[in-house]
Amino acid sequence: FLGVMPAYSAADDALTTKLVTFYEHKKDSSVPSHQATVLLFDPRNGSLKAVLDGSVITAKRTAAVSAIATKLLMPAFAEVLCILGAGVQAYSHYDIFTELFTFKEVRIWNRTKEKAVKFANSVNGPVQVCSSAQEAVTGADVIITVTMATTPILFGHWVKPGAHINAVGASRPDWRELDDELMKNAVLFVDSREAALTESGDVILSGAEIFAELGEVVKGTKPALPEKTTVFKSLGMAVEDTVAAKFVYDSWSAGN
């Protein structure tokens, strides 16, 4: 797939388009499934100001949004973090989650165990490599799914009541990471209702009802409900790339 994600933010005085290629690698590949470039334009006259590495921006901004959702939705006492998947997004999520939150235990599971072991050996803190997704998930307070799964790999009866799940993979209308039981019994938050109802197989195929957009919780128009089992379905929004690209450009311009 080739995706085009244009956005304009008046508040940030920023105009961008992200070009992203997405290739489903049937076998483990050294090439990431997602590759991206962000073009930053001058909103006053349309001239191109910068070309930025969109893969880094995508990884960082996606993890940042998951962290915001987690800050708002996770249980009051969250000690165990579980990551399902060991690709680019697993690393970016691990970095910000261990920076912002204090977990006593971090677990990882990946379809190919070698990648999970490599992940555990290359990050800064201790990570427990689990032999099954169920082992990784059982008792976890915060769960992050960043896989290339097309059918569910996370099941509701595994999940601790009150846990928070960030569902980041399965970005196609016919792909799943979470099963119907989890989708229907958890309180569902999304980044964009419109996107979730056209792009997310987890939402479309389960028929789960969307409770709120994350922005509504940030603004205070919808409650967070951290005492409930919550799912944040992340698909990514072009404006996230715009704000991130402008932040990078302004820092670079200032000589930082």
UniProtKB/TrEMBL annotation:
<dbReference type="Pfam" id="PF02423">
    <property type="entry name" value="OCD_Mu_crystall"/>
</dbReference>
<dbReference type="GO" id="GO:0047127">
    <property type="term" value="F:thiomorpholine-carboxylate dehydrogenase activity"/>
</dbReference>
<comment type="subunit">
    <text>Homodimer. Binds the thyroid hormone triiodothyronine (T3); T3 binding inhibits enzymatic activity.</text>
</comment>
<dbReference type="GO" id="GO:0005737">
    <property type="term" value="C:cytoplasm"/>
</dbReference>
<dbReference type="GO" id="GO:0050241">
    <property type="term" value="F:pyrroline-2-carboxylate reductase activity"/>
</dbReference>
<dbReference type="GO" id="GO:0042403">
    <property type="term" value="P:thyroid hormone metabolic process"/>
</dbReference>
<dbReference type="InterPro" id="IPR036291">
    <property type="entry name" value="NAD(P)-bd_dom_sf"/>
</dbReference>
<protein>
    <recommendedName>
        <fullName>Ketimine reductase mu-crystallin</fullName>
        <ecNumber>1.5.1.1</ecNumber>
        <ecNumber>1.5.1.25</ecNumber>
    </recommendedName>
</protein>
<dbReference type="InterPro" id="IPR003462">
    <property type="entry name" value="ODC_Mu_crystall"/>
</dbReference>
<comment type="similarity">
    <text>Belongs to the ornithine cyclodeaminase/mu-crystallin family.</text>
</comment>
<dbReference type="GO" id="GO:0070324">
    <property type="term" value="F:thyroid hormone binding"/>
</dbReference>
<dbReference type="InterPro" id="IPR023401">
    <property type="entry name" value="ODC_N"/>
</dbReference>
